[in-house]
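Today's session is about reading a structure prediction critically. Students often jump straight to the picture, but the first step is always the sequence itself: look for stretches that repeat, for charged clusters, for runs of hydrophobic residues. Only then move on to the predicted structure, which in these notes is written as discrete structure tokens rather than atom positions. Here is the chain we will use throughout the hour.
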Amino acid sequence: MGHGGGGALSSELVEHVFLPSFRDEALARLGDSAVLDLAGLGGDRLAFTTDSFVVRPLFFPGGSIGELAVNGTVNDLAMSGARPLFLSTAFILEEGTDVTVVGAVAERVGAAAERAGVRVVTGDTKVVESGHGDGIYVNTAGIGLVPDGVDVRPDRAAPGDVVIVSGEIGVHGIAIMSVREGLEFGTALESDCQPLNGLVDAILGVTRDVHVLRDPTRGGVAASLNEIARAARVGIELDERALPIPDVVANACAFLGLDPLQVANEGKLLAFVPPAHAEAVLAAMRAHPAGLGASVIGRCVADHPGLVAATTGFGASRVVDLPLGEQLPRIC
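Below is the predicted structure for this chain, in token form.
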């Protein structure tokens, strides 16, 4: 508990665990806030987001709570078309958590920030009594700049828009479930946790006339599409045969009684683009490492506004509902 008391132990934690992991000049000043120079960064609109991460277990195939905290916030900024620049991070630590575990998570945060090209410039640490937490919770907030000419928001989806997904879906949620419950599905499955700001840059490099970007995390593709359809008052029609669901995810979902469209992702995005730009955007996505498996999965229509429908492999149509709750809790 002494590490959360603001005294010598707190200073040691900051000095020996967090500062070496994040390595930033503004953070090293240890002020109550970071003062940052935004001049000449190429935009006059700020994007600002915050998120908290409570994943269990802390480390999983393909990532950890550290990568999730950085990538989740970076991706939320990128989905507004912003270039992520600065992050804050707050660690809520449970009494009794091994400091080496805290250090390992902090190192993952620092490495993920470096990979995404963002700076961790301010932070906070609190310690709660044993039994009142689950090892480590992490909160991150992020600031980015929105370039001129970019207007990306859910209510801009329009009839005719082509819906593109950047790769295989459902991987993160099933990877978490497999390690949490000790399940084996015949092959190793790793989370798709990764930053998507580079992929968004590639998309906007083709055209700034991108209507919607969304990373389908909790609630999966189904939740994201329903939210967009309702915000824009459009219908969305999917082709189930075009959905990139890997066999291991499909088999696991069949075994567990889950819908792959409702399983969380942490390194995929949905892009709604006018048909005139769809082929060029798809090619740019496939040329980027984070979008190698990009594919067209549907279109926006004027019919049935606010509703998402899917054409099955048998030619029938079904409604893709908004999930009622959390199929897989504590996945981010």
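Discussion point for the tutorial: The radius of gyration is 20 Å.
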